[in-house]
Design brief:
The chain is of the alpha/beta class and 266 residues long. It folds into two domains: 30 residues; 234 residues, Collagenase (Catalytic Domain) (3-Layer(aba) Sandwich). The chain is built from five helices and ten strands, in the order αβββαβαβββββαβα. Strands 1, 2, 3, 4, 5, 6, 7 and 10 form an eight-stranded mixed beta sheet that branches. Strand 6 and strand 7 form a beta hairpin. The radius of gyration is 21 Å and the shape is globular. It binds zinc ion. The site of zinc ion (ZN) has 7 residues, from strand 2 and helix 4.
């Protein structure tokens, strides 16, 4: 009886060890679902496998601040040191720097939108002790109107405006980043700013979303920085919500700079 009991335990242990071993050798990357952390605090992330099994996609979705945000409470500053990397170890390849972006500003309704986007690129480049991350020369392109086609993997990084109602209702903007799980390299980033009826864009206007404000935030995702939702991060560029007329994300806070240095420091 005792022998049988011991034998059973040994069998269970053996099976468990073999099973654990298989898990490690057969699936080193881990299932894509493990990334799908769409808990209530993170409505922002939607992950799906790309066409190539080594490619994965994350869509960072930027929403207006909920009504409960922004009233009262302690006053925080952009000296907060917080930053979060979406996946440790992932970045653009050195030889792919500076990262080039195209822009199709035809859907913005704002003359000079390209200049605002270029300011956002320059802002991240100005972080001390980092590589030059972005090519500040934006190439103007005319991309197809269909919003879904602007988000496909086409080996071009594009900033454009489109109606996001059908894909991401209520979103101000999205950044779809494609990355390779084999060599941990980011291969593409496409930013779309929502021009649906409720979303109007401007430059320093109190009644519109500020172009430079939102694009600077989105470019942080292009570096692979993640959103921050804690109230103490509310003055940082990577804070996960924005408002009409807001311009505080145009300039980087301490945490934003520390994040850029962590990823692209030299
Ligand atoms: Zn974001």
């Amino acid at each position: 009886m005792k022998m049988y009991f011991l034998y059973s335990i040994a069998t269970v242990l053996l099976v468990a060890l073999v099973w654990m071993g298989c898990g490690e050798t057969l699936d080193p990357v881990g299932p894509a679902q493990s990334l799908n952390v769409s808990a209530s605090k993170k409505p922002a992330i939607d992950v799906a496998r790309g066409a190539d099994p080594e490619l994965e996609v994350v869509v960072f979705v930027h929403y207006p601040a909920p009504a409960s945000q922004g009233l009262g409470g302690p006053s925080f500053t952009d000296e907060a040191k917080h930053f979060k990397v979406f996946r440790n170890g992932y970045r653009w390849l050195d030889t792919d720097l500076p990262v080039e972006f195209n822009i199709d500003a035809s859907g913005s309704g704002v003359p000079g939108a390209e200049i605002e986007a270029a300011k956002s690129l320059a802002t991240w480049n100005a972080v001390p002790n980092t590589e030059i991350i972005f090519d500040e020369t934006l190439e103007s392109v005319s991309s197809p109107i269909d919003i879904e086609s602007k988000l496909i993997w086409d080996e071009e990084n594009t900033i454009s405006w489109g109606d996001l109602t059908s894909l991401f209702p209520r979103a101000i903007s999205v950044n779809r980043v494609v990355f390779n799980t084999f060599n941990w390299i980011i291969v593409e980033s496409d930013i779309v700013l929502n021009n649906a009826e409720d979303f109007t864009w401007g430059i320093g206007s109190s009644t519109d979303y500020d172009i430079q404000n939102i694009i600077t935030h989105e470019l942080g995702h292009s570096l692979f920085l993640d959103d921050l939702y804690g109230r103490s991060s509310s003055e940082l560029t990577m804070y996960g919500y924005s408002d009409i007329g807001e311009d505080k994300k145009q300039s980087l806070g301490l945490g934003d700079k520390l994040g850029a240095q962590k990823l692209y420091g030299n």
